[in-house]
Amino acid sequence: MKQKFRWMLLPLLVLSISFSYAQEKTVSGTVTDQSNLPLPGVSVVEVGTTNGTQTDFDGNYSISVEQGGQLRFSYIGQKTVTRSVGAGSVINVEMEEDAQALEEVVVTGYTSQRRSDITGSIVEVDSDKLSQIIAPSVDQALQGNVSGLTVSATSGTPGSTANIRIRGISSITAGNEPLYVIDGVPVSNGNVGASGAYSSLSSLAGLDNNNIKSITVLKDASATAQYGARGSNGVILITTKRGRVGETVFEVNSSYGFQRDAITGPVPLTAANRLELTAEAYFNDGLAATKQEAINDLLASDFADWDAAGRPEARWDEAVRNDAASVQQHSISASGGGEDHTFFASLGYMNQEGTVVGPSFERISGAVNFSKDLTSNLTFSSNNSASHSLQNAFLETSAYFESPRSAKFFLSPLNLPYNADGSYNLFGGSLPNPLYLMDNNIYENRLTRILSNNSLNWQLTDNLSYGTVFNVDYQGYNYRNYSNRNYGYGEPTSGDAEQFDRTNVFYVFQNFFDYKLELSDNHIFDFKVLQEYQSNRRYFLGGSGQNFADDGLYNLDNVGTPNSVSSSFTDFYIASYMGLAKYSAFDGKYVLDLSYRREGNSRFSQTNRWGNFWSVGAAWNIFKEDFLANSNVVNNLKLRGSYGVTGNANIDLNLYQSLFGFDADYGGEGAQFVDTFGNQDLSWETSNTLDVGVDFALFNNVVSGSVAYFSRTSKDLLLNVPLSQTTGFASQYQNIGELTNKGVEVDLNFNIVDTEDVQFSLGGNFATVENEVTELPLDPNGVERTITTTTTRIETGHPVREWYMPTWAGVNPETGAEEWYVNGVDGETTANFNDAEAVFQGSNAVPTFTAGLNFNFKYKNFFINANGYYAGGHKIYEGWHLYLNQSNAYPILAYNGYTSLLDRWQQPGDIARNGAFTTGATPWQRNSKYLYDGDFIRLRALTVGFDLPRSATDRIGINSMRFFVRGNNLLTWVKDDNLLFDPEVDVDSQGGDVTPGETGLETPPARTIAVGVNLSF
């Protein structure tokens, strides 16, 4: 009986022992690095479970775990360590540095990669370089820092947009702007201004530059194909700052400075110059027997009041100048985190005045970014920023006589800005005094932008994770214009006003899986599948009116005569499915990555809505081969290459549909009319891009850089093709045409001196690009349909919009007449402009060669940083020469020309640039005389500063303090002496409001000098 009882107790005893062994126990310890310093934020997870924790600020941890289990310790830059849980309750761990994990990680789109694994052309610009340019829009800081990237500002007016081209022109009419991505999510950027006549307003100006950690520019197909149709023109990735585990750190950045125009620009004629040239024109036209007789006649008539007053000079260029145009930036931020969370918060303010009276830009912004481990394997992140911008804009995209910028070109120097008592001189005529108008009219652009990017990441297993992202980009825009009722263009209507409100809302949803498969240490696969949906909605409401009863009234509910009211709604949608795969073999010696994206866009019909875009890239890290393992010369050597197909759908909405319009008025009643022709076959424009390159670092990283060659062919161009008039329509968008871009890009950096007290480095880049149209549509007779304007032509075998016009032969020294080559090249000349043949002039407005140079020097706590930029191989056309820079009636009788006109023919034998002056109003004669070499060099940034020594910061209890003096656009060299305007002209039409490549009357870039301080505590 006892024996039987003992056998009955045996299972219970085993169960009891098993239960005791599986009991949880508390294990604690300290985690340190290889220098025995505590590591905060180390992830401590019980293997095979969701049970986990993190080390605190002192590297300590405590976790309840089953005895016999395993704890995994992981930390960025350290090798993962696994320890078994035994009978003891203390497990201390010393982590070991992981050289491979410490390698620089670069954001490459939807993923981040080690730099050695990258197979494409990618350039990262960090916050230090971005901060060297003082501007509301951070994209302007990319100029000179990224090979193959050109920046052309639409205007130097604070807050205006900048047009960026990456590797040339990829499309003729479907848009060439890159895609902007903020924290992994595509967003909308560009000009939000409602009126093309006024200063543009960049939506990117709503971001505080101090909150940006880095900008990464993706240039080749292996990097951009993952963005499908939006990646054909390159991708600009903006990564904002985030918190990190540790004590809360506060940073204060503040600067204050002053600005002037970067160049003087054309100098206007004085009243004395005007008298001289007008008299000369009278004499040349036979209206006076001698020049002196003409002068006497003018002093007795048009110039009599000026002469009697002592011959004062108006100098409108000085009158409208804002000599104390200030610019200031201030921000404060806090960042930190605990064991399961991180945060970053900031508040910023910027105020920038224009270099002429009137325009300004003001922004207040804030950001809150945080992440929280909801459980040991579920993390929530949210990046949020908001800003409100106010731009006091003004008319500047054409010859607007109200504009203070154009005053020096159009207002007569005989009309003084102020009366003797200091009041405004309200002279009559069609050219009003802009100083009065700037004080009494309203030109405002307001933008409220809110970006909210929210994500959940669920670590399902050690190798598999799931993520979901929801992003909202809200842009609330308001435009208000008021012309006073007492003087200027509003006087005839007793004042007029207009106001527009536009709301843009962009939603992006993403869902993705990441899977890592390690067959062994020598064969590692990374996979990502992603689904993305983007919704874009725009609401518009606007109205205008006139006839105000009193001063001080400027809202539309006060107008006596409402003129118009309009409202609209537009939307479009993008849906995508994407797969990424990367294979890394033998510790990253060999890398292969693949991407495939299927994308649908509501701009196309259902039968052509979906497109397929893909890329393949490979890299060979030669420096990891055994034969270079112990090299004292080669530190890095990588051969890379990629090929892929991207797309372009950047055209207006609903072009594929045959639509009726309903905004017509027929006898006071609403009417319907045929509006668009439509094209159901309309589909994607595609770009096929080949990219090969080599990255290298030599002599212990003293010399490093990369060399790349690219070739991009854009096919099935979305062209607006002329139609037969029998269709009732002038043109139709079709997929036809082809162009190519080829070039070489070189990036070099020389780390010349790197000691404890002295650091000195030089860096630079240069790039070439050759653009050529290779196919255009044919007319019914099989003849190529070229696209010709008064100054450009699109034709196969030539660059897009190559300059095309008669060639100027100079001024005939005997007659003083302007002459042109009959055949457009050389030989016979003619004084009859209509007899001169138009020919190609050898280039377009886009630089074919660009270069940047960076200089960095530091001695102990003193430092100097400089950045320069060069662009060349292109030509620029002077847009307003008929009225301002020709020897005719316009610059001396109607408006006011430049002093360059003083170089003119006066008598036989004179060798002069300008012909004999005349009182006649000649017609437009666009020719190569006003086509200039666009080559220029600009000192973009120069910073001189001092870092407070560590001994001083320790005494006052702060982490760091930096004082600096910074200058932007301090020096500009222009190759062509006849190019009087700023050489950075717009290469985009701004929706048809300006002519690409032509100088206009917009504000040039500003020369800025500012002092500042950066403080961390």
Key descriptive features of the protein:
mainly beta; five-stranded mixed beta sheet; 22-stranded antiparallel barrel; 1017 residues; disordered N terminus; single chain; 53 strands
Architecture blueprint of SSEs:
Layout: H1 2-21, E1 24-32, E2 43-46, E3 52-54, E4 60-66, E5 70-75, E6 78-84, E7 93-94, H2 99-102, E8 105-107, E9 112-114, E10 122-126, H3 127-130, E11 149-153, E12 162-166, E13 179-182, E14 185-187, E15 212-218, H4 221-224, E16 235-240, E17 246-261, H5 271-284, H6 291-299, H7 304-308, H8 316-319, E18 325-337, E19 341-353, E20 360-375, E21 378-392, H9 407-410, H10 434-440, E22 442-459, E23 464-483, E24 496-520, E25 523-548, E26 559-585, E27 590-601, E28 610-621, E29 634-648, E30 659-666, E31 669-676, E32 685-698, E33 703-715, E34 718-722, E35 731-735, E36 738-754, E37 758-768, E38 770-775, E39 787-788, E40 792-794, E41 802-806, E42 808-811, E43 818-821, E44 829-830, E45 838-840, E46 849-859, E47 862-872, E48 875-878, H11 881-884, H12 890-894, E49 931-933, E50 936-947, H13 950-956, E51 960-974, E52 998-999, E53 1006-1016
Description:
The chain is mostly beta strands and 1017 residues long. The chain is built from 13 helices and 53 strands. The protein is globular. Strand 19 and strand 20 (360-375) form a beta hairpin. The strands form 11 sheets. The protein has a 22-stranded antiparallel β-barrel. Strands 10-15-16-13-14 form a 5-stranded mixed β-sheet. The protein starts with a helix and ends with a strand.
